[in-house]
Design a protein that fits this description.
It comes from Ornithinibacillus hominis. InterPro entries: YfkD. This is YfkD family protein. It is a single chain. The chain is elongated, with a radius of gyration of 27 Å. The chain is about 25% helix and about 45% strand. The strands form three sheets. Strands 1, 2, 5, 8, 9 and 10 form a six-stranded antiparallel sheet that branches. Strands 3-7 form a two-stranded antiparallel ribbon. A hairpin with a 2-residue loop joins strand 8 and strand 9. It is α+β, with helices and mostly antiparallel strands and about 260 residues long. It has two domains: about 35 residues; about 160 residues, Beta Complex (Proaerolysin, Chain A, domain 3), CATH 2.170.15. The longest helix is centred in the first third of the chain and has 33 residues. The protein is built from four helices and ten strands, in the order H-E-H-H-E-E-E-E-H-E-E-E-E-E.
Length: about 260
């Protein structure tokens, strides 16, 4: 009887939690697939006649003192420039400073970026079109990618915000972590860049090979606040005042990648 009770309990628990596990798995797979590079988007890093430089954002690790200061406030701080400044600060309260109090104002900073949505437009900006006229031909002909003119593709914030450079840096770092893609606010496709992928143009047809630069559309919120270092005797802490949040978006191109669209007429 006892064994039957245990079996019934296990079946009941599986009935409750199995759909949750399946949904979580499906959500995880969907999020992963959202950022997978489709077959019509190709990496041209090796073929690109313009050598784009890799923009690997410097990861600033907080020092022991900086970490103590950051732990003293409930407001999350991820701005690498603010962390760097705190790392370079020297704070040595007097060991006999009983009763001493002071506040050091460090300015108003963008403290943290929180991503709400990350999507990819694989046809963000058209960069080239190759054509092949086979109207009078009798055999299939092949049309391949050949970049006709150098094209610079730039990303940008979608609205005005204070400290835009700090905000852009936090946004691209967050987007890179989510998508695992080579992102940069500027990417260039050099003239004469070719790719061996080819598309067949049958007789009595006109072929068009359109090429696009893809980009990530990042949206979220930036937390701003006035940053103070408070000294109380031998103790020190970080105080954040007048905290506000502002919505922000950005287009961030995917470096050295081209999206292709083939058309017959």
């Amino acid at each position: 009887m006892k064994n039957n009770y245990i079996i019934a309990l296990i079946i009941f628990l599986l009935a409750i939690y199995s759909p949750i596990i399946v949904l979580a798995k499906e959500k995880g797979e969907k999020e992963k697939n959202d950022y997978e590079i489709p077959s019509h988007v190709l990496d041209i890093a090796k073929e690109n006649t313009y050598p784009n430089s890799n923009e690997d954002e410097e990861v600033i690790e907080p020092s022991k003192l900086t970490q103590e200061l950051m732990d003293s406030t409930d407001v999350k701080i991820s701005n690498p420039n603010l962390i760097k400044m705190l790392n370079e600060s020297t704070i040595n309260p007097s060991p006999i400073g009983i009763g001493y109090r002071g506040m050091v104002f460090l300015g108003r900073w963008p403290l943290h970026y929180e991503s709400d949505d990350t999507n990819i437009n694989w046809e963000y900006q058209k960069i080239n079109v190759n054509e092949l006229n086979n109207m009078g031909g009798t055999d299939n002909q092949k049309l391949s990618f050949n970049q006709q003119a150098q094209k610079e593709v730039k990303g940008a914030l979608t609205n005005k915000i204070n400290n835009p450079n700090d905000v852009k840096q936090m946004m691209i770092m967050t987007s890179k972590q989510k998508t695992k893609l080579p992102l940069s606010y500027t990417t260039t496709i050099g003239a004469g860049t070719k790719k061996t992928n080819s598309y067949g143009v049958p007789p009595e047809k006109y072929g068009y090979l359109h090429a696009f630069a893809p980009a990530v559309n990042e949206k979220g919120k930036v937390t701003f606040g006035e940053v103070y270092i408070e000294l109380k005797g031998t103790k020190k802490s970080l105080v954040i005042k007048n905290v506000t949040k502002q919505g922000i978006g950005a287009w961030i191109p995917i470096q050295d990648h081209v999206s292709f669209s083939f058309e017959l007429k």
